[in-house]
Specification:
mainly alpha; single chain; 4 helices
């Protein structure tokens, strides 16, 4: 049990000091790819949220208009 815990802790668990990337990913050289993909998802999410919120503002959906 102790060996598995150390393995999970050192290889698969995200570490804040490593920008929330698993140590194995840093060791194998995938950290920059992972961080780039996270950045792309973040940008896409913000764009979709902005588009959604601007649509809601144009429709003027408010509690008074819904009921």
């Amino acid at each position: 049990m102790g060996h598995f815990y150390r393995l999970a802790l050192n290889y698969y668990r995200y570490h804040e000091a490593l920008k929330n990337v698993a140590p194995f990913d840093v060791y194998s050289g995938h950290q920059s790819e992972i961080l780039q993909r996270r950045w792309e998802v973040k940008v896409k999410t913000f764009e979709e949220r902005e588009r959604y919120n601007s649509t809601i503002r144009r429709q003027d959906v408010s509690p008074e208009n819904v009921l």
